[in-house]
Automatic annotation (TrEMBL):
Keyword Transit peptide set for record: no
Pathway where this protein functions: Glycan metabolism; pectin biosynthesis
Name listed for the protein in its UniProt record: Hexosyltransferase
Alphabetical list of Pfam families matching this protein: Glyco_transf_8
One GO BP: cell wall organization
EC number: 2.4.1.-
UniProt similarity note: Belongs to the glycosyltransferase 8 family.
Length: 162
């Protein structure tokens, strides 16, 4: 949805590059034309550092004992990689760090509005000024329990022809 939103609202979509990593089960639904933007779509299975020897969550997924979203848990492993056991930081990040060295700037905090899946008091002004809307929480807009005041923010980018 973030990709669709950016492409639809961009003056020149060909200037945007996205690298999307998702669970393998979601890949087919994401393989749609992107109207000029460059989208690299990848499965979490392509990354060998994400394996069961390092993670009990991945072990549960691989044994089929629980249905879990790997990406949901990945954010918890990022801080745990300080010692480089999960993946080697010098091999994963060096190209990105070289590419963007001295050209990155911190984003204004108001550009990323979070809580649209649990916080009913996010103001329309905050949403209007935001660059990224984050539907984190249990009441995501694609669920029946979604908060109605935020649902249109999501549905206007859903391709109903799929």
């Amino acid at each position: 949805m973030v990709v669709n939103s950016v492409i639809r609202n961009a003056a020149d979509p060909s200037r945007y590059v996205f690298h999307v990593v998702t669970d393998p089960m979601y890949l087919p639904t994401m393989q749609t034309p992107t109207s000029g933007a460059h989208v690299g779509l990848h499965s979490t299975t392509e990354y060998t550092f994400l394996n069961a020897s390092y993670s009990p969550v991945i072990r549960q997924i691989e044994t089929g004992k629980q249905e879990l979203s790997l990406l949901h848990y990945l954010r918890f492993y990022l801080p745990e990689n300080e010692d480089g056991l999960l993946w080697k930081p010098d091999t994963v990040l060096s190209a990105g760090l070289m590419t963007f060295y001295t050209t990155t700037r911190p984003l204004e905090k108001s550009w990323h509005v979070m809580g649209l899946g649990y916080n009913p008091s996010v103001s329309h002004e905050e949403i209007r000024k935001a660059v990224v809307l984050h539907f984190n929480g249990n009441m995501k807009p694609w669920l029946d329990v979604a908060m109605n005041q935020y649902k249109l923010l999501w549905t206007k980018y859903v391709d109903s022809d799929m």
